[in-house]
Amino acid sequence: MHLLPVMEGLHSAEAFTQPFVAEFLELVRQVERRPEKFADALRGKVIATIFEEPSTRTRLSFESAAHRLGAGVITVADPKTSSVVKGETLRDTARVIGGYADLLVWRHPHDGASRLAAQFAGVPVVNGGDGRLGHPTQTLLDLYTLYKKWGSFEGRVVGILGDLLHGRTARSLAWGLTMMGASVVVLPGPGLDWEPGFESRILERYGYRLARLSHSLFKEWTGSEQARVLEPKGLVQGRLFQGDAPIVERLDALYLTRLQDERGAGEQSAGVFPGLKAHQLQAPILKDTFFLHPLPRRDEIPEFVDADPRAIYFEQARLGPIVRQAVFLAMLCSEHYSLPPLRPLPSGDAEHSMGACPNPSCITHFEGMRPPWRVEGRIRWIFLCAYCDTALQAHYVGCRSSRRVHPAHSPQVPKIRPENLRPFADRESAIAQGFRWGGG
Ligand code: NCD
């Protein structure tokens, strides 16, 4: 299985490692304290920003960051002015623009676009938001904002509220916070929860457990008094028991998000979209809670909240260029600012008979490609699309070395080494490929 080289770019918050983020946050702190020290760090380099979806903050903060480091910037701010409208594939666009710049920042409407672009660009690609999948530099910015307040994430409890199904900032942040040791209270608007497989991967990766907490405020937001919480297994918290779920007494931060209409969220939402209301601001659970939002906001944070000392979303937005300066330094100046490696994401294996990726927003559908698969950690019976992380339908799994095929749920399957796995949609295609029936 081919692995992407480590600093080929920044595609997913799930590729972060704890040492990487810890040192990255320190680098941001240096940039914030002594900006003049970095004024020429990228002299002679060219950054391309390619934004195939609307953006104000992300594109301008990346461009501001590039200018502050002395780099030149070329940009596609509106895809209608580029060859995308002529039907050019992402692969070809990446190949071409990769020859014009030293690093590409790419925003794209489809899940997994950044990972695909990185395979063809030949220069580092930084994901500026791809579909609903991820927005890793927003997460670095969110983490830095909280790091400045807290110094460390362990023991902190953060609620993520709103459109979790379509919100890439929410998904990336869930990876980032759990990786840093915080607990995440999952607060989806009605009908807008992320899929269970997403959460299971986080739990498995970081040794977290799924617990339930209750609070009357949750009912106003999600329709249920109980909320799921992703928390470190070792955590022992003093909790007040009442009914079948402990009551949560405080949230250290609440991350609000808007309804993502452009991804069809309006049709999927099954009730009133949650946000902060005047009477909620007095609730003891929110007494020392920082309010964050990636912006743009809609009605989920009324303007009267802006003057509240707990509201830090504009401070968060102001840190955008500084955090993105550090992203460029980490990607392009690794001889001076060498950070611990990111976790390599396998580019996947296209050999299988599993059919198309079930996620209609996956980049493979728009590029006429079969979804390459990867497996994660010890979970060897779930085959994920290597671009968008959606589970592919593998009903049978073969072992390349024994040439035997088993049903996907067979106890034999977890014993197969990852490099020997070969997924099939049905038994017949396995037999046709020369595999023998190995039983269940
Ligand atoms: C977010 C995005 O584009 O995902 N915006 C941003 O980058 N600050 C959030 C959003 O648009 O809702």
Describe the model.
Helix content is 28%, strand content 21%. The longest helix has 16 residues, at 18-33. It is α/β, with parallel strands linked by helices and 440 residues long. A 6-stranded mixed sheet has the order 8-9-7-6-12-13. It has 3 domains: 9-136 and 319-332, Aspartate/ornithine carbamoyltransferase (Rossmann fold, 3-Layer(aba) Sandwich); 137-313, Aspartate/ornithine carbamoyltransferase (Rossmann fold); 363-437, no CATH class. Residues 57-58, 129, 135, 138, 168-169, 258, 294-295 line the site of N-carbamoyl-L-aspartate.
**CATH C-level name of the largest domain:** Alpha Beta
Q: So what's the overall shape?
A: globular
Total domains, how many?
3
Structural class: alpha/beta
Largest sheet: 6 strands, mixed
Beta content comes to 15-25%
CATH architecture of the largest domain: 3-Layer(aba) Sandwich
- What compounds are bound to the protein? N-carbamoyl-L-aspartate
